[in-house]
Specification:
11 helices; 268 residues; 5% strand; 2 domains; globular; Glutathione S-transferase Yfyf (Class Pi), Chain A, domain 2
Length: 268
């Protein structure tokens, strides 16, 4: 029998008393969170566990997501697995071996860059979002994003010809068609008049996709011709490269060469 002064075993302590014992700790934690919130240091979306971004920067859509994460100051781990060369590693996150794939902090995975950046906008304060919520400004942003994606898709199709089809079996008319469509799309983006960004004073998804497409086009178009033919886009890209989100995600020259996209003497 326990003495009058001894404490009963934990299993015999009523649940209500256990809850009472934990209450002071919970109150202290709540007070700390409230204090941080009042000081402006607490930001709920930045307390999330780090997400995992799967895909190499040589993938323009993976780069789009990486730039977005960095511009929004959202923590993430980058897993630069290549969909062609490391398909099994990619399939752990994306059963179709498609990149980009973003594993969220709760373990769920998104695999489409449009869905991913839309989700990321939804977890940050309205003033930090990279797409306008509504109205004519959103329509303009969607137009520029659409052209940027279309241009990048033509670059990707052209590069698939280089990577996947042997020289003797490449279709010259397809490559010429891709280049013609790419240049047409770049001319539409070049005609945008806003400054300093495509929507004016704030950077948006329109700028991200325009820069990703324009810089990716250097794989297809000679760099000197590219800058001369599209001076506004060249200036936009140069401005974007002043931001770490863009400069730190530029595909590595060795990675491009290893992918078979460019020769040893080509620059980006």
């Amino acid at each position: 029998m326990p003495s009058a002064k001894s404490k009963p075993p934990l299993a015999t302590v009523p649940r209500a008393r256990l809850d009472d014992a934990a209450a002071p700790r919970q109150c202290r934690l709540a007070r700390k969170v409230a204090k941080l919130a009042c000081s402006g240091l607490f930001n709920e979306h930045r307390w999330r566990l780090a997400m995992k971004l799967v895909g190499p920067w040589v993938s323009g859509y993976t780069r789009r997501v990486g730039i977005t994460l960095k511009l929004l100051n959202l923590p993430f781990e980058h897993l630069p697995f290549h969909a062609y060369r490391e398909a099994e590693r990619v399939k752990v996150f994306s059963p179709m071996a498609r990149v980009p794939a973003l594993q969220l902090d709760d373990g769920q995975v998104l695999i489409d860059s449009h869905a991913i950046v839309d989700y990321l906008d939804s977890i940050v304060p309205a003033g930090e979002r990279l797409m306008p919520a509504s109205g004519p400004e959103r329509v303009r942003a969607m137009q520029w994003v659409g052209y940027g994606c279309a241009c990048y898709d033509k670059v990707a199709r052209y590069c698939d010809e280089l990577m996947l089809r042997p020289d003797a079996h490449r279709l010259a008319h397809l490559q010429a068609g891709y280049r013609a469509q790419l240049e047409s799309g770049l001319r539409v983006l070049e005609a945008a008049q806003a400054h300093p960004w495509l929507l004016g004073s704030r950077i948006s998804q329109a700028d991200i996709m325009a820069v990703v497409a324009f810089q990716s086009a250097s794989v297809v178009l000679p760099p000197t011709r590219e800058s001369e033919a599209f001076p506004r886009l060249a200036a936009l890209a140069q401005q974007a490269m002043q931001l770490t989100a863009f400069s730190s995600t530029l595909p590595d020259l060795e990675e491009l060469q290893a992918s078979g996209l460019i020769g040893a003497n080509h620059g980006v």
